[in-house]
Structures are given as C-alpha cells and as structure tokens.
Amino acid sequence: MRKTTIALAITLLTTSHFNLAQTEPVTIPHPEKFEQLSQPSPDVTMPEFYVKAIAQQAYIWGYPMVNQFNRRMTITKAPYPALNGGMVPVAPMGQLSMLTDYIKPEETFVTCPNQDVAYGLGFYALENGPIVIQVPDFGDRFWVYAIYDARTDQIGNVGKPYGTKAGFYLLVGPDWKGKTPKGISGVIHSPTEMANMIPRIQMDDTPEDRAAIQASIRQVMSYPLSEFDGKMKSFEYSKIPAIGDKPDPSTGEVHWVIPDKFFDQLENVLNKVPPLPGEEAMYAQFRHLVAAGNKDPQVRKWMDEAAEQTDKTVIADFFKWKNNGVPAGNGWNRSKNNADFGVDYYNRTGTSKSNMFDNKPDETQYFYTDNDATHTQLDGKNSYTVTFAKGQIPPVKGFWSLTLYNDRHLFSPNELNRYSLGTKNKSLKYNPDGSLTLYVSRTSPGDDKKNNWLPAPEGTFSLYIRAYWGEKAILDGTWQPPRIEKTQ
Q1: Which residues form the signal peptide (predicted)?
Q2: Which of 213, 230, 325, 469 is least enclosed by beta carbons within 10 angstroms?
Q3: 90-102 mean pLDDT
Q4: Segment 281-291 mean pLDDT
C-alpha cells in the first residue's frame, strides 16, 4: 500500500488541482477490491440518447467479430469441401477447401481479394477439440497460413517468413490442456474458440506455374485431431463441386453485418470472446444494454436505429482509404497494426469493412489510395501512369503487386482478365533507365505497352499495393509508393 500511496502522491503533484493544505495521504483500493464495484443496475430506465450512444460504441467495437461469426456460420453450412457459386472455397466446420487457381473476379465473399495467390479457407470451433493443420513442402515458393481468432487478429507464425517446416501442426482453443501428440511439430494457441485459416500460396501467372503448384495444393488440409494418423493426407481440390448460387457483383460484398440483427448476434460475441485486459467494464455496459433491449421493445428499437445510423455513417466512412491506416506519402495510406490490432479498435473495424483478413505487418504491408497525385478521385474516364523509379519497386523478400479495385473494392471483369501486375508477371517491360511504368486506363495504351497495362472500369476505382515479406524499408516506412499521374 505504501508504494501505491507514493505513486499517487507523485501524480497529484503534477496536477494543478493539488491541495497544499492536504496532509492525509490518499489511498486507493487494493486491485482485488475492484471486483466488488457496482455493476449496471438492471432496473435503471435509460433515456433514448444514452441508449443510442452506448449502442453506437457497441456497434463499432463489435462489428469485426459479428462479421467473423456470421462468415463462419455461412461457410460451414457446406456439406463437403466445395466452391460456393463456383468461386469461393467453403467447407464443413473443421475442414478446409482450396482454390487451384486465382480467385475469380466475380466473387463477393470478401473485399480486396488477391490475384497473386491460390487461396484456401476453413473455419473452426475449437471448443469441439483441436484441429490438425497439414503443411506440405512448398520448396522455394512463398506461402503463409494466416490463422485468425474471433477478433480478426492473426495467431501463430506459420509460413515461409518464419521458416516453418513441412509437417503437422495443432490448432487448439483457450481451454485446451492436452499433451502434444507424437508427430505434431508445433502447437498454435487461439485465445478464442472461434478461429479460421486462409492459406495463401504464391503462384506466377504462367501455365507452367499453375501446373507446378498443384501437388502442394492437394496436401493443404485441416481436420480434427481424431483423424490424425501421422501420414500426410491429400485432397483433389480440382474436382470439388460448385454449390449455391452465383453472386451478384453489382451489389458489392456480401452483407455480413445486418444492423437490425446485430444486437442478437453481439450477445454471442460477448459470451464466446473473452475480454482483453481492461475490457471488463465495457463488456458489462454492453451486456447491460443487450439485456435492456431484450426486456424493453422501445430500448431495442433505439438500439437498432443507432446500429442502422452507425452503419451508414461511421462504418461506411471506412470504405474511403484515407480513413484506413496512416499516411504513406504521395497521397497513399498504408496499413497499421494489420491483423495484430490489440486494442486498436479503429483500424480493426476499418479493416473489417474495407479489406477483411489482412496479414500481419511482418508478413505483408498494404498501401492504398482512391486518389491520384493531385488528390483527385481516380476515375475510368481518365488515364494514369504509375512509375516506380529505378530500384524503387517495393523491396520485398516475397512478392509485390499493384491491384485495381472498383468502387465496391471488388474486381470489374475486363478484356484481359487482368486485375493486378507485379512479381507474378514475367513479361513486364522496364524503361531504358531501369524504371517501371504501369498504365492504368479503360482503353489500351498501345501494343508496345500492353504488358504493363492494368485495365480500369467505368466509374471510380482505387489502387492497392501489396508487399509480402517486406524488407526493412517497407517495415519502417522509409519506402514510399509512387505518384499516380493523370495523363489525359
């Protein structure tokens, strides 16, 4: 207690409110006494504006997790590994489904998809038991298994940047206390029972590499520990069926968070996701709000109104790249704390709206913009150049790319079926001085520039740079993305 009193006295001395006449020491309760603090009263009558204020906080905070749980509920309805709408991998709980090529441009499962890798997807309920994750030998190919908890934070370090070796790894939940079975190379602990995994396996845009990658893809699998026998299993993903309806790209990403259903689903989040240190009081306030809404239809009506308004204002604003991450130079922003958010609620929610399922900063850095060098919205009625000076393409150990997205952060089909340019493209033409110019326009810049052409859609669009396994200049922010120059 003496240390606490001294520390508080020092704090008081630094404030203008210190009372010189005060002679008695001021003390605070011992930490465990906080457990006895009053909780929100279930009988209090809350006015409309208070309800809406707390409801808005809850919506902003809970948006990523409700998003996650709703994706899991939908994806795991698949009776077997398949392609939903013929485009997106889906699988039963505990299993995994893989693409064998780039993701199709019509998909709407997730915004800002990547056409540099073959994707996979699996969701898990770790309260049902551990999951075995197979890692084949990828050789020199870049790969990473991004494993996420319910908060969309990445857990574990599984991939080429970490020197992960081929073998079997165990994904376990927060309550697992078992022994590591023989033949398991490592254990990945999730702080939540909900988890999902998105393998990303780099693939060059050539027929030869499309063929070469298939042997590895067949051995990318996950399954319950009860099925583990120490032998590498395989699955022929090239033969999995299409199920479900094809998506409608004109509507944008699937609406994973529905405002008038949000507070029914938030209760599940509060029960399934343990609070981080310091979040206990916030959990108590949100539980109180949900309980009040369950009891009083008028309170619930106010909560739903707040959710709807917050979705149209706060959440919608995160679709603008200037509201994501931090400035990166030349009019671009870059990711901040991606998939390693902690209590960075701002960037967690922004990412879940604009580009869900980032990789961690040491795996990938993202640079994005809606505007050209004059801070004017990019638009298909104009033509642009993006020039990387000699030696200034993104410095990476993995790969880099420049991707174009439409106003819904999705792809717009084009005559070349081309949506990104970068490491995967072996026919890029460099300028005589060693610089690299990429052309962004609706119409071809000419046959001599066609290899460097990124077709643009009608209407507004954005540009997005990925830098996988960045060098020091990427990680410390000294590398800046190039200017986007309007040419006509």
Answers
A1: 1-21
A2: 230
A3: 97
A4: 96
**Beta bridge partner(s), residue 386:** 438, 484
Phi, psi of 282 (to 5 degrees): -65, -45
The answer to whether 453 and 386 are in contact (CB under 8 A) is no
User: Is 184 strand, coil or helix?
Assistant: coil
User: Is-contact 122 222, C-beta < 8 A?
Assistant: yes
- The reported pLDDT for the residue numbered 36 is 63
d(CA 310, CA 56): 6
Query: For the chain, which residues make up each domain, given as ranges?
Result: 2-36, 48-68+256-313, 71-244, 321-486
Please write the tens of the pLDDT for every residue from 8-23. 332 322 333 323 233 3
Q: For the purposes of burial, counting CB atoms within 10 Å of the CB of 345, is it exposed (0-12), middle (13-18) or buried (19 or more)?
A: middle
- Edge-to-edge strand list for the sheet holding 326-329: 326-329, 332-334, 364-369, 461-468, 400-406, 420-422
Burial tier of 272 (Cβ tally within 10 Å: 0-12, 13-18, 19+): middle
| pTM (predicted TM-score) | 0.90
Residues 270-286 have a mean pLDDT of: 96
Task: State whether the Cα torsion 195-152-119-413 is positive or negative.
Answer: positive
CATH of 71-244, one of 2.30.22.10, 2.60.40.10, 3.40.640.10, 2.60.40.1610: 2.60.40.1610
User: Which residues touch 433 (CB under 8 Å, ≥6 apart)?
Assistant: 390
Handedness of CA 382, 383, 387, 393 (dihedral sign): positive
Query: What is the C-alpha separation between 255 and 234, in angstroms, rounded?
Result: 34
